[in-house]
Amino acid sequence: MSQTIDLSALLAHPANGGLRPVAAADPATVWHDVVVASGESGLPADGAGGADADLAILTTEPPSAPWQQDALIRRIRDRGYLALAMPNSDLFGVGSRVLAERVGLALLHVDDPMALAKACWLLLEGRDALTLGYVRRVAQSIEYHAVGLADLLRHLSASVGHGIALIDAEGVLLQSGGTLPAAVHAAIDFGPWLDTVTVDDGSAASVHVDSPSRAGLRLAFFGTGLNAVQLTALAVAAEVAMPAVAARILIDEVADVNDAAVAADLLRDFLEQRDTRDAEREQRMLDRGWRTAGYHLGFRIVGRTRVDTFQLLRFVTRELAAVPADSHVVTSGRGVTGWLSFAAPPAPSQVDAAVSALRSLHTAARRSFNVATGVGSVESGSTGLATTIDGAADAARIAVSRSATGWFVRIDALGLEQLLLSWTENDTFVPAAQSLLGPLISRAPELLETLTSYLDHESGIAATADALDLHRNTVSTRIARAQDLLGLDLSDPETRLAVHLACRAVRQSAGSSTSSTSANPRGATP
C-alpha cells in the first residue's frame, strides 16, 4: 500500500469494525501501511515496508498477564509499528497503557479486525470501491418507501453512516444523523454543482438540489475527521441521492398545497356558516386540531403587492413554532389567516407577549415578503374565533396603508377607527360613498388612490409621497385636482372625515368585488 491514512478518517468511517482508541491514540496520526495477521508472529519483522509508520491489526486478543502485555507492546513497537489494533484491547492494564504512551504505540480496540482491514484498504487503495459502497447504500435507501422528506433523509443517513442535511444559504432546513456545525455551513460554496469543505469543526460534501419549486437548496453529507478520499466519495453519493430528494420535495409540496387548499376551504366554510352547527365540519376541524373551545387571538397577514401565499404560509408556520401557544395558519385570499389559542383566559401580559411575537414574525416576514399584518382581539369560543379573525382582517386592511406603524396594526389599539371601519361596511353607506366619489372613480382613479392614502396618512403630503413612491409636488397637485373634481374643501374637518370614510368604503367594496370575481371566474354561480 502506497498511500497514507490517518486515524481520524478511520474513526469517521461507518464500517470500521467498531474501532475505538484505548491509549496513545492521536487522531492526527498518519500511517503509510496496514498489516493484518492472526498473531504477533505473523507480522513482518520491521513493518510492511521498513518504515516507522505502520498499523498492525491482530485478530487475537491481548494476553492476560501484565508482563506479557508489556512485552507485546515493546516487541510490536520494536518491529517499527506505531499502532496496534486488536479485539478487547481494553484488557490492557493501566501500566501497559502508560508504557504504550511512553514508547509511542497507539492501542486501539476493534470488534471486527477484518472489517477494519477492509476500511483501511478502501481509504488507502480502494477509492473507487469506497465510492461504490456509498452509492450502493444510497441506491438501497432510494428503494425504501419513505413517508416524507424527513423520513428519506433519516434512511439515507442511517444507510451511508454519516450526517445528512438539506440546506440553503440561510441555514439548515432538515437534517438527520447529527447536527451540521454552523462553521461548516458557512464554509459551503452555494455556487458550484459539487463542493467539499473542511474546517476545524468538521467536513461536508454537498451538491446543488435541482428543484423547480425551491431555489438555492443543497444536499450535504457531513461528519468529523473525514479525509479527502471520503469527501470525494460522499460527494458522488450526494449527487446520486439528490434526484430522489428533489422528487420527494416536489411530492411533499404537492401534498402540502392540496392540504393548504383543503384547510382554506374549511376555514372559509366556518366563517361563512358561523351561526350554523355542522357536525361534519366540526369533526373536520377537530381532525386538524382546530378546537373552538378556549380563547383565541386572530391575525391576518396580507400582501401589499403580489406574494406567493404558499411560501408565506410555509414561512409563518415555521416561525409560529417558537410561539408558546397552540397556533394554526392557513392560506386565505392574497395572504394567510391564523390564530393562537389558549385553554384558559390569557393574562394581559400573556396577550402582550403573543402580540409582540406576532410583531416579530411580521418584521421577519417583511424581509422576504411585502406584507401588512393585522391582529384581532382576544375572544372566546366558536363565535369568538370568528370574531377575532374578522377583527384581524379589518386591522390588516388598515395596516396596508399604515407605514407609520410599520404596516402592523392591532385592532384593540384602533379605538374610534375600529367603529368607523365597521360602519363603512354597511350596505347603506357604500352606495352613498360611491356616489360622492363618482367623479374620481369614473375619470381619475389615480386621484382616488392618492386621496385615500393622503387621508389615511392624516393629510400628510410627505408620508403619502413615501407610501405611494411619488414626488411631494405630484401628491399636492393630485389632492388639489381631486378637491376641484369633487367640489369639496378638505380643510373642513367634517368634510375630511366624510371623504375619508367614503374612500375606505369604496376601497373595501372594490376589494370584495375583486375577491368575488377571482373566486367565481366568468360569472360562475357560487
Would you mind describing this structure in some detail?
It contains 19 helices and 17 strands. The protein has helices spanning 7-12, 66-78, 94-103, 113-124, 127-143, 149-160, 182-187, 228-272, 279-287, 309-320, 348-365, 381-399, 416-423, 429-436, 438-443, 445-456, 461-468, 472-486, 493-519, and strands at 5-6, 20-23, 30-31, 33-37, 54-58, 81-86, 106-109, 163-168, 171-176, 194-199, 202-208, 218-223, 295-303, 326-332, 335-342, 371-380, 408-410. The model is unreliable at 48-52 and 517-526 (pLDDT under 50). The protein has 4 domains: 5-124, HprK N-terminal domain-like (Udp-n-acetylmuramoylalanyl-d-glutamate--2,6- Diaminopimelate Ligase, Chain: A, domain 1); 127-251, 2-Layer Sandwich (Beta-Lactamase); 273-423, Alpha-Beta Plaits; 429-523, Orthogonal Bundle (Arc Repressor Mutant, subunit A). Helix 14 (429-436) packs across helix 19. It is α+β, with helices and mostly antiparallel strands and 526 residues long. The strands form 4 sheets. Strands 2-7-6-5-4 form a 5-stranded mixed beta sheet, with helices on both faces.
